[in-house]
UniProtKB/TrEMBL annotation:
Name of the protein in its database record: Sieve element occlusion C-terminal domain-containing protein
Residue ranges of the TM segments: none
The species this protein was found in: Stylosanthes scabra
Highest taxon of source: Eukaryota
Coiled coil feature spans: none
Taxonomic lineage from the root: Eukaryota, Viridiplantae, Streptophyta, Embryophyta, Tracheophyta
Cross-referenced PANTHER family: PROTEIN SIEVE ELEMENT OCCLUSION B-LIKE
Pfam families xref list: SEO_C (PF14577)
Length: 143
């Protein structure tokens, strides 16, 4: 069942936004279609961890970026661009990242990600139709 395990990391300066986003994720992870498709969702609100842990998290992302930038061509490295985008979100009202294993599937700002999770009832049936949570989420998120 590991192949159907997704993890959301989210945070931001707007505590109301992060709590609302987490509530939507709690509802999604209990949905019957996810159970039918053996899909598991975990989520972590980084704005709820202690400030020291949050600082360490962002320091690790920064160190990863600096380490990678020394070894690669920035213009052609998509991972570097993703890390740079992620670092720019640190002080935003809200942001969310969806991953599957080590792969980042979607990273976006508050309103874009909120609209996808808010509309879950509308697109939940696409999980079966599009052969999985990942395909359905990405299809809706990129509209």
């Amino acid at each position: 069942a590991q192949e159907n395990k997704y993890v959301f990391f989210y945070g931001g300066t707007d505590i109301t936004w992060t709590q609302r986003f987490g509530s939507y994720l709690d509802n999604i992870k209990r949905d019957s279609i996810l159970k039918q498709t053996d899909t598991y969702i975990e989520h972590f609100n980084l704005s709820r961890i202690d400030p020291n842990s949050e600082s360490k998290f962002w320091a690790n992302i920064t160190n990863s970026f600096l380490s990678k930038i020394q070894k690669h061509n920035f213009k052609t490295d998509s991972v570097l661009k993703e890390i740079q985008t992620f670092l720019s979100m640190k002080t935003e009202k809200g942001w969310a990242l969806l991953s599957k294993g080590e792969n980042v599937l979607r990273l976006d700002y508050n309103e874009a990600m909120m609209s996808v999770v808010e509309g879950f009832e509308i697109w939940r049936n696409k999980i079966v139709e599009l052969q999985g949570f990942e395909n359905a989420f990405i299809t809706i998120a990129t509209k």
